């Protein structure tokens, strides 16, 4: 997977998530905030995490050239979270998403990574409108989407889900 584009910010390396990240993805997808705000992906083992990467992340990366990125802190190579651009079923256009391990929250990593991926979406992948979806209860995610310049435009419900999510979009006039 090394042929796919990685990105850097002042403090982070954003590289496409790979099978070598299975332990990290297992940990991240089972954090209380992930389960509460994003949902249970039924990742119970490292092998489940590897299969999730192989079956959910790789196909989009191969098809579109972007997907989920593992956020690696430059100063110590610690994996702190993930950020990505997602082509989600039931959502028109590309969605930006992010999650951090609890011990790395509150340091601006999600914003730093999302700003970089938002710019890459426009400048490298030709994406003009970016969506953001979040639960009505996830106030920190809502604030981050607003800080990224996305505007609340309504609600949406993804296929197979029973909860409405807030839908944010970039302002097409600001591109």
Automatic annotation (TrEMBL):
Bilayer-crossing regions: none
Database matches in Pfam families: Acetyltransf_3
Source organism, top-level taxon: Bacteria
Entries under SUPFAM superfamilies matching the protein: Acyl-CoA N-acyltransferases (Nat)
Ranges for domain N-acetyltransferase: 12-172
Stated name of the protein: GNAT family N-acetyltransferase
Lineage: Bacteria, Pseudomonadati, Bacteroidota, Flavobacteriia, Flavobacteriales
């Amino acid at each position: 997977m090394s042929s796919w584009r990685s990105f850097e910010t002042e403090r982070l390396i954003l590289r496409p998530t790979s099978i070598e990240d299975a332990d990290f993805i297992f940990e991240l997808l089972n954090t209380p905030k992930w389960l509460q705000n994003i949902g249970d992906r039924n990742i119970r083992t490292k092998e489940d995490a590897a299969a999730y990467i192989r079956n959910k992340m790789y196909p989009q990366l191969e098809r579109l050239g972007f997907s989920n990125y593992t956020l690696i802190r430059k100063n110590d190579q610690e994996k702190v979270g993930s950020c990505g651009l997602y082509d989600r079923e039931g959502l028109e256009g590309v969605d930006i998403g992010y999650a951090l391990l609890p011990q790395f929250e509150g340091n601006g990593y999600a914003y730093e990574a999302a700003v970089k991926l938002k710019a890459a979406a426009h400048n490298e992948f030709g994406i003009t409108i970016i969506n953001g979806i979040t639960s009505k209860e996830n106030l920190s995610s809502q604030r981050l989407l607003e800080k990224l310049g996305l505007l609340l435009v309504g609600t949406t419900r993804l296929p197979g889900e029973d909860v409405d999510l807030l839908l944010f979009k970039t302002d097409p006039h600001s591109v």
